[in-house]
Amino acid sequence: MGEKVSSRSADSSHSTPAPQGAAVASHANKAAADAVAASFNSLLEKLHYLDDASVERVRQAYRYADHAHLGQLRNSGEPYITHPIAVASLCADWKLDTEALMAALLHDALEDCGVTKADLIAHFGAAVAELVDGLTKLDKLQFNTREEGQSESFRKMLLAMARDVRVILIKLADRTHNMRTLGSAPRSKWYRIASETLEIYAPIAHRLGLNQTYRELQDLSFRHLHPWRYATLEKAVARSRSRRRDVMQKVQAEVETAFAHQGMVVRLLGREKTLYGIYERMQGRHLSFAKVVDLYGFRIVVSSVIDCYTAVGVLHQLYKPVPGKFTDHIAIAKANGYQSLHTTLVGPASLNVEFQVRTEEMHIVAEAGVAAHWLYNAQHKGAANVQKLGTRWLQSLLDIQDETRDATEFWEHVRVDLFPDAVYVFTPRGQIMALPSGTTVVDFAYAIHSDVGDHTVAAQVNHQLVPLRTELKNGDVVEIMTAPEATPNPAWLGFVRSGRARSKIRLYLKTLAQSESVGLGEKLLAQALRAEGVQQLPEVAGHEALWDKLLRFTGHRTREELLADVGMGKRVARIVARRIVALLSESGLRPDILLLTRERYGAEDSLSQGGVLLDGSERATVQYAKCCRPVPGDPIVGYLGRGEGLLVHHAQCEVARELQRKDGERFIAVDWADEPTRSFEVAVSVVVSNHKGVLARVAAELASCEADIVHMDMDDAVGGTTELRFVVAVRNLAHVEAVLRNLRRLSMVIQADRVFQPRA
């Protein structure tokens, strides 16, 4: 992701001490002071919605921040305090409350000026300090990579924002001002900062309905990512605007006249597609600028929802609508609360013009999103709805965090939900649900409830049975069928789209692996204890003191956690067993010498005395090595990988032999159970002479042998031959040998062998 992001990184990586001494002219100092005073006065003028006591608290925060940043300059040469004032001013435009404005003024003090959180609590209270802390970068934490550090930083920001949405509003104001002044920063920083803004902050703004901020961040990012393209496109739009000014004025006049004839009072606002929006359209559809037709449009603000639909009727009588270009976002609001009617019409000179029709409440929500909660009276339906939508998404962040402790994985889940595209589908009862673009049936199931997702077995879309990986389309009616015994399938991770579904599936699989690891760990530890002369693993009851001491020694919180780590290979069973023996000796219990002798020197009996028997029913804790693909009947060895569980190799595998030389203490005794419960994969190479239909004949022979083909590829060999390489599912070694015998009997088969080593 790049270097760590801070609230100041989009402007300058560090503050610069102001030049001191006679070199600085007194008039320059006065000019700087005047600039600061003017910018703060400009902020005060926006605070008319606060009472006098609140304005005084904002003044106190300003004085504190001004003192903290004394002697610091921005790259532009301005006093650094002008930046927090500008951020607070943007927050005042949204009419955020007193605490948010104070936090905006103080947002860099905690990070760069030696001010502590305790200082902020003492001066301004815990609420302001928490807001500032949520905005502060993680300087004191150490990360293995820059990417990990950045993921952790974003996780902290998102979780702080989930607890208090004002955090992200201040953060977005901060980033907006920094992007406006990015031209003063070294050009070497432009790409990283602009990319980050485009990929992270702009989607967050859109997800929260802050469309005005979203569009500005996109355009500013485009300007600094591709300066030449931006300048070229800006000139092209200016030329087009000049050429079409008369046409747009004519459209405006005709529309105003049409509404006047109907006796409707409307507010007509001109709008132009953003430069980044035009660029994205050109890139996505491979269009030249001349072919981008809907550059211009109007917003029509009316007094009621009924008037919205009436207004569209008036427009459609005035100009012909473009087929397929009418969208009703009032009946079906976007996921971020946006509501409007969209229609594209063919105006004078065959110019396509888009109209967006909305009420005043919808207009405020469309521009300010969750900030409409402050901008507009909260009892109005528009503001309340969008606040509810924003809160729902923010709460989902906390749910994902509860299931995902890894920062990079958390960000992977969350960023999927940041992108603006969505599909709108219906439950069988007619409830509308908004889901990410590309969403599948399984995503829908988890969106209803995690229990529904976990027990999904089948689904109907528009009353037709469909595969679970089916992508949903706008207007689909989806019904999920569940079964109590059903569980999530790991293969679902290959196609689910939403962060919620992905995190829930991974949580289930981790829990499953944990429980299986406990069982394997208990078996391995019991086996290691027998080798030390202890008959069985001590129970907790009656040995509480022993387990307390053992857990303090290993650093685990519970017995199950320790056993799981043994099962996953994170702890060596032999070392833990020796510690248990030492603790037993302290309490007067000595190893059984006869048992110890039999276990250590009776290798032929080792499996009967506690070795691991494998029948294929093991899941996450036991894996069968791809390099040699052992099957029942093969001699095998078990390698306890570091954090990977038990890895089973063929005894003659070269990879296993190399591991034994390097890490022999991690090998344990394993053998096959009498009756394996599933099939196993084996690799087979078949060299055939080139004839028509040879592949079909070989595949048919494999099918007749009841060996299912899992994978197949081929290479041209020499002398008119071809090598076919299969991975097939078989029951055991005898089955493998039978398959090879039958293949060798085919007239076109020159050679058929089992393959033990993977090909490069």
Describe what you observe in this structure.
- This protein has about 750 residues and is α+β, with helices and mostly antiparallel strands.
- The protein folds into 4 domains: about 15-225, Hypothetical protein af1432; about 230-375, Beta Polymerase, domain 2 (2-Layer Sandwich), CATH 3.30.460.10; about 505-670, no CATH class; about 680-755, 2-Layer Sandwich (Alpha-Beta Plaits), CATH 3.30.70.
- Helices cover about 50% and strands about 15% of the residues.
- It has 28 helices and 22 strands.
- The strands form 7 sheets. It has a 5-stranded mixed beta sheet. The chain has a 4-stranded mixed beta sheet with strand order 14-16-15-17, with helices on one face. A 4-stranded antiparallel beta sheet has the order 20-21-19-22, covered by helices on one side.
- Strand 15 (about 635-640) and strand 16 (about 645-650) form a beta hairpin.
- Helix 3 packs antiparallel against helix 4, helix 4 (about 100-105) crosses helix 9 (about 165-180) and helix 18 (about 405-415) packs antiparallel against helix 21.
- The radius of gyration is 34 Å and the shape is extended.
- The model is unreliable at about 1-25, about 140-145, about 375-385 and about 605-610 (pLDDT under 50).
Q: Could you describe the largest sheet, including whether it forms a barrel?
A: 5 strands, mixed
**Which outline best applies?**
extended
**Physical arrangement of strands within the biggest beta sheet:** 3-4-7-6-5
Termini Cα gap = 32 Å
Low-confidence stretches: 1-25, 138-146, 376-384, 603-610
Question: Would you tell me the structural class of the helices and strands?
Answer: alpha+beta
Whole-number average pLDDT?
77
Could you tell me the strand content as a percent range?
15-25%
CATH topology of the largest domain: Hypothetical protein af1432
Given the structure, what is the number of helices? 28
- CATH first level of the largest domain: Mainly Alpha
The whole-angstrom Rg is: 34 Å
CATH architecture of the largest domain: Orthogonal Bundle
Number of domains: 4
CATH level 4 superfamily of the largest domain: Hypothetical protein af1432
Helix content: 40-55%
Number of strands: 22
